[in-house]
UniProtKB/TrEMBL annotation:
One Pfam family in the UniProt entry: IMS
Keyword Ion transport carried by entry: no
InterPro entries for the chain: DNA/RNA_pol_sf (IPR043502), SulA_CellDiv_inhibitor (IPR050356), UmuC (IPR001126)
Designated name of the protein: ImuB protein
Domain UmuC: 11-120
Keywords, in A-Z order: DNA damage
SUPFAM superfamilies cross-referenced by the UniProt entry: DNA/RNA polymerases
Organism: Phyllobacterium sophorae
Domain of life of the organism encoding this protein: Bacteria
Matches recorded under PANTHER family: BLR3025 PROTEIN (PTHR35369:SF2), BLR3025 PROTEIN-RELATED (PTHR35369)
Biological processes, Gene Ontology terms: DNA repair
DNA damage found in the keyword field: yes
Length: 481
């Protein structure tokens, strides 16, 4: 493999035959061709390599949900609690190597008690399974460059006559830190389990997950639906023990040829029933631009609750309001699946006293349940609202006539129509948010006005007379129903 490094074509990877012939990574292409005139080369493609690594990492989800990318060509799997699904460690590695070899890949792996030790043993040793007893001797035998420290520090260790990790780890820690820095000591602590280096999974670890591993790949979609029905029952039994419902469920389909297809379903409320989940799943499958294809068959089917929320028992009300709310939530879920989450929005209250910022729009399936807006709506059933539901964005300018500078307007002209005020309430003073607004933002005084024809308006005066603003502007911000 060849790539351009510092304006020079150099070897970035060599196969086993080239390595035995004396070629090495970083060697100039001209030097390599001086030794072998007919050299078979291929130009490196980091993007394609990263895409291939991502697809392999997706495929590795069949072994554990904790999968992390170890750039540039490694993958780290946390197999804690998963090995028994494959019998033992030997069976697990045999299955992994066999499947990857069938796809033309050469793999070297190591199974150790920590991610740092497994990574080093896989990269700089023949690999294998290392128990707690034989892991330390394997680490002692690793070469110095397995420490992955700066070249200057690596050269210093070699000048001191050190040749392996075992030669370094027995030296006093204080002397190593003073001479080579803290990175070397931290690296040694990670390799020998004295410090943990947690991995960062590339996917969200689900709260609850159920799966079915099939002895023979499954092609018939009717049978797939039956398995999904069984899995959903298991999933909701698991969530029921936690007194939770699923807000986001991910269905994963692992094909026998290594392809993995995932379908995510998000809901506007926590669901706890199998029928609801299957109905939404069918709805989602029917809207896919690329239909689900079994290919050579699915050998693993999985359902995972990625996002959950505490569920509450719903008491049916006498006026059927609870039933109507349930029907609306079901409609929201179906529309979100068909049209996309970004096209079905729900108003969510914001923590601000500025009227035009008091409500924001979020995807309905992501908005939290029991929002303060629902309480506000119920509260206003018995009392007239203090603010209108409909606001103009931006507020519309009006020409106001008032008797006193700080009083409500007696008349105003809006859209070339004059309104004579017979009733006024206010003011409600709202100061600007100084941490958001510009330096010239002014205080507002809001009034609720009713004209001679019974129409009600919400207007405000921008600026105060006593603060040196002789001609404050008036705006109409909203209309009451």
């Amino acid at each position: 493999m060849v790539d351009k490094l510092a304006n020079t074509l150099r070897l970035t990877a060599v196969d086993e035959r080239a390595s035995k012939a004396g070629l090495y990574k970083g060697m100039a292409l001209t030097d390599a061709r001086a030794q072998f005139e007919h050299l078979d080369i291929a130009f490196a493609s980091p993007r394609k390599d990263a895409a291939l690594l991502d697809s392999i990492a997706d495929w590795c989800d069949r072994y554990t949900p904790l999968v992390a990318i170890d750039e540039p060509h490694g993958i780290i799997l946390d197999m804690t609690g998963c090995i028994h699904l494959f019998g033992d460690e030997i069976s697990l590695l045999k299955d992994m190597h066999k499947r990857l070899h069938q796809r033309g890949m050469i793999v070297r792996s190591a199974l150790a008690t920590s991610a740092a030790a497994a990574r080093a043993l896989a990269r700089y040793s023949p690999g294998g399974i290392f128990s707690e007893n034989d892991q330390e001797p394997g680490l002692f035998a690793l070469p110095l460059h397995s420490l992955e420290i700066e070249e200057s520090h690596l050269a210093g260790l070699k000048r001191a006559g050190l040749r392996s990790v075992g030669d370094v780890v027995i030296l006093p820690r204080a002397a190593l830190t003073a001479r080579f820095g803290a990175r070397l000591v931290n690296r040694l602590d990670a390799l020998f389990g004295r410090a943990s280096e947690p991995i960062s999974p590339r996917r969200i670890v689900p709260f609850c997950m159920v799966e079915r591993r099939l002895a023979e790949p499954l092609i018939v979609m009717d049978a797939v639906e039956q398995i999904l029905l069984s899995l959903s029952e298991e999933l909701f039994r698991c969530l029921q023990q936690r007194v939770e419902g699923a807000r986001e469920v991910e269905a994963s389909f692992f094909r026998a040829d290594g392809n993995v297809r995932r379908i995510s379903i998000q809901t506007g409320r926590p669901i706890t029933g199998t029928k609801t989940l299957l109905r939404l799943l069918k709805e989602r499958l029917s809207t896919l631009s690329d239909p689900l294809d079994a290919g050579y068959g699915f050998d693993i089917l999985r359902l995972a609750a990625v996002r959950t929320e505490r569920s509450q028992a719903i008491q049916k009300s006498l006026d059927n309001r609870a039933q109507e709310t349930e029907e609306i939530n079901t409609l929201v879920d179906r529309l979100s699946i068909r049209l996309g989450n970004a096209r079905v929005l729900r108003a969510v209250p914001a923590d601000t006293h500025i009227p035009e910022r008091a409500v924001s729009l979020e995807p309905a399936v992501k908005a939290k349940q029991n929002s303060p807006l629902e309480w506000v709506a119920d509260h206003h059933l018995a009392n007239p609202p203090e603010r209108p539901i409909r606001l103009f964005e931006p507020p519309e300018r009006i020409d106001a006539i008032f008797e006193l500078p700080d009083a409500a307007p007696a008349q105003f002209v809006w859209r070339r129509v004059r309104h004579t005020i017979v009733l006024a309430e206010g003011p409600e003073r709202i100061a600007p948010e100084w941490w958001r607004e510009h330096a010239g933002a002014l205080t507002r005084d809001y009034y609720r006005l009713e004209d001679s024809s019974g129409k009600r308006f919400w207007v405000f005066r921008e600026g105060l007379h006593e603060r040196g603003n002789p001609n404050p502007r008036w705006y109409l911000h909203g209309l009451f129903a």
